[in-house]
Fold this sequence. Notes:
The chain is an alpha/beta fold.
Amino acid sequence: MSDVYDIAVIGGGIMGGSTALQVARSGMRPILLDQGDLGQGASGVNAGTLSLQIKRVKLMPYALRGHHEWEAMGDTVGFRKTGGYTVAFTEREVELLHERQAQKAEAGAPITFVSDNALRAAEPNLSHKVLAASFCPEDGYANSSLTGQYYRARLRDNAIPYLEHSPVVDISQDQSGFALVTPQGSVRAKRVLLAAGAWLKPVAAMLGVDLPVQARINTVSVTERMPPLTSHVIGHATGLLTMKQKANGTVLVGGGWQGRGTPQDGRGEVMANSVVPNLALAQFALPQLSQARVLRSWTGFEANVPDFYPLAGALPGVENAYVLGCVRGGYTIGPYIGKLMGDYILEREPELPLFDPGRDFNEDTI
């Protein structure tokens, strides 16, 4: 491949795709490379929940803008704004719910606490053991399996080339830029963006940078089609449950319960000792769900660093190299932070600050 692109984006998920589109709007020539199919990593296998109630306080401004991005995508990504309830069953959970949701409301999320009567009127099938609940009218979901289809179409519409099933196996840099070696040949570019999700660590190592990236192996399950049970996104005060019923009657259950495996070994493995308590909590919240058969459970890798904030900025020590990833709530925030990353690469001042990949990492669980 003889073309020299302005930037090569490694990773064809939401963040890589949105960044490529943003730089292309200003005349840059990007190329996107993915080791598999576009949007089929974490971007395509998560539960699709778009809930402000489960976002970190400091990331709320990004999540609010991310919600607007998904709403603008609309039916092409299966976007639905249903509103969402987060519930508590014990006094400790009530305390936790009020503390966390009050902070998120103060950060700008339209979250309120609702009475028992209001909850019963809206969700009559929820357990009567609920002691407290919060509500956010902006909550909803999209169909994550449409991620790749959406970005593939957008890239084609904007004449942005992309290579699927093209893992980058080596990166070298000289005065003219970068050479990326793939099974389909070598790609040359003046700049490079690492947006490879849970694979960021080995990709950065090709440039001599050791990023402190780890991967969570989140599990999602889907039931058979059921009669209408719930019309909102349902969450739990601990964050260990997200649940929503799709238009076809199936119920998606998530909550970050862990499977087993590593990104380098391929798809993660579902663990019964994670799936069972996840489903038990879902059935406790929505008792009629105990009558449903689970059709499938699967895993997806979610990258993170020790302080659980994003990597978004210049790759330390490598000129003209950038990194974007490790965004908690990355499905929600991804389309927006990709735009910010594009502005940064274009040497514009981003609307909101990015997250220095060269910072000191200290664990922060706010």
